[in-house]
Design goal:
Shape of chain A: elongated
CATH architecture of chain A: Orthogonal Bundle
CATH class of chain A: Mainly Alpha
Order of helices and strands of chain A: HHHHHHHHHH
Largest sheet of chain A: none
Oligomer: homotetramer
Number of strands of chain A: 0
Largest interface: A-B, 44 and 46 residues
Radius of gyration of chain A: 18 Å
Helix content of chain A: over 70%
Distance between the termini of chain A: 46 Å
CATH topology of chain A: Tetracycline Repressor, domain 2
Structural class of chain A: mainly alpha
DNA sequence: GATGAATGAGCTTTCATTCAT
DNA sequence: AATGAATGAAAGCTCATTCAT
């Protein structure tokens, strides 16, 4: 069971996540976060020893959340083609319902290497999420639906494509909402990856 | 002919581009840039009135450079399939030879929206580049090779995919060098977009 | 009752007032003020959000102080002639005992309009003080001692004259101390204003 | 006859006077002045060795100009009462036609002591002007119209009063234009000074 | 005389972090 | 756990002045 302290940490993570994703890492200050929680600056440091550490906890939190979503898809008894569509759907749903998560991933985690350099080497901090994509891919290859190409080429396609679309949406460049692209995009991806 | 001042501006742009892409926008200071050029801080401001303005000039510079590359491909009398491959090749070549450009695009321009908000609305600052992708796509549709889908879906695929791969490379996650993925990736993209 | 923070703000106001009036607004730096209080520069900003805001608080403080002095004179049951003399006396006393106040008024507030433009429109920031002069004048007119001329003409005489004398004193141009002029000056003023 | 250099110096003085009086001494930069004259920054320094020196030349220029005006009044064969009125008139006329002069006097010269400390000790830089006021006063005493009081008390009244009125005008506080106050004010002054 | 690039000291302001309470 | 005052380093930017041309 979660301790009181753990619960408060989660509340802080959520508030910080929203601010970082909206305003950027460097333009969000610790006082900003504290104030949004009506908490004192000093007390924040009782929960997270530094701004950087907080940032790293957030990306782990996001990775865990997304990983859980994908896991439940991977466990279904459906074709890889269908899984592809469901993953795209879940990703866009998250972008719609919890846009701060995807934004954080794209604009904070991927962009501020210096912050995550120590403590998130490789893909440590997004392990939960990457692992599930890997499982999706390997299952697809095993069951004969997907070509056995280099995993990273497939991963780059998947993540780059989806990230790119959410990014374009965030810039108000897309004429339609994300959902309307689900068919096109999952079809594009599946065509690219299938045998 | 370029004035002395214009030449110096380009030298500054190059130095700043390298530092921003390597260390990030907020962690690179004007003194950093000045020092790397053995120039005084004050004099920097004779060329660019603010750090933000410098950042915007850089992205325009990059967009122009990439746009020119793509333009020469678009003008060739070759199939869209071949163009696809050449675009991927040029992009990865740039990522190899001038990695700071792609990095800047991915990690500075796309991530620090507050910096580019004013002055780069929509895609103004990357117009040269986006236009060429648009031409590539429309030509492909016209000559019957590509499906007539929403441009942004295609654009997101292209840019997200390539950006994602370069990103993974930057993280030292890819086991092989970028060139070795050219065939896989251009083939994946073409499969995704063709009729 | 005053909070600790309010008390500290007053201490800062006093220190800044002394420095601004002695050295001028632009030639006094925030580090100067902080150092005179053995306080850190950053902490100054916990009390006043900017140098300009500090300057505005100071003039309000002075106006309030002088206003209170005049108020107690206005409330006395004495002739306007006597009031005139007492006002001159109080003004010169302040110039002697708290010269920084009169100096600030003359040399910082009246001279650096760009600083006080926003937030001190009209006479907002010196309202307490001006109001009492207005009451003095109107009472004098009502009781038949003073001519009913345009208030500003009378105000300009009063304030210009007194300010001018203090200024001359500050320049070490006056051969005698201010007090020795009280009779001459209050008599000059009264002669100028009486019916 | 004036040399070319002297003429150019006067042009610079006029431009600087306008800017200093409008924007203040510290908020007007040498580039500002140079630009307003379409002159290079470096060349400015061929005429005035520093910003401070320029400021001092300007006040001497103003004092000379006003002194000439007063001199012509002092030389007239008219009563001191009439002279009083003419002096007020000339002062207000200047405030209307060349407001930058009076503004400079009030807001730059009188307020930024640190600038004029060296080189304008006492009243050196405004000697021409003060001398004429002194002559006006002494003549008035000699011919029996004015009381023989301390000169500075009279001077403070005159200058403080007039300065105060122009100041109030500059603040848009006076409901009427300055000319309409001439009678009131010269009468107030004369009443204050006469025997 | 004229130009304007170059210098560098110094300013205001911010902010992660600490610490006394 | 909680507060928020305090610290101090560092950032972006300005500007009087100089100097090579």
């Amino acid at each position: 069971m979660k301790t009181k302290k753990e619960l408060k940490k989660e509340i802080i993570i959520q508030a910080a996540l929203e601010l970082f994703s909206k305003k950027g890492f460097y333009t969000t200050t610790i006082p900003d976060i504290a104030q949004s929680l009506k908490m004192s600056v000093g007390n924040m440091y009782n929960y997270f020893k530094s701004k950087d550490i907080l940032a790293k906890e957030i990306i782990k939190h996001i990775s865990h959340y997304l990983g859980e979503q994908l896991k439940s898809i991977n466990e279904k008894e459906i074709s890889t083609e269908e899984k592809t569509k469901q993953i795209v759907t879940v990703y866009f749903q998250t972008a719609n319902l919890k846009p701060e998560m995807i934004d954080y991933f794209l604009r904070v985690f991927l962009s501020n290497r210096e912050v995550f350099k120590e403590g998130c080497e490789g893909m440590i901090c997004v392990n939960d999420f990457v692992t599930e994509i890997m499982i999706y891919f390997e299952d697809g290859v095993k069951n004969g639906e997907l070509r056995d190409q280099d995993f990273f080429s497939a991963f780059g396609l998947f993540m780059g494509y989806l990230g790119g679309m959410v990014f374009l949406k965030g810039e108000n460049i897309l004429p339609n909402n994300l959902d309307s692209y689900i068919d096109d995009i999952s079809s594009n991806i599946y065509k690219a990856l299938k045998v």
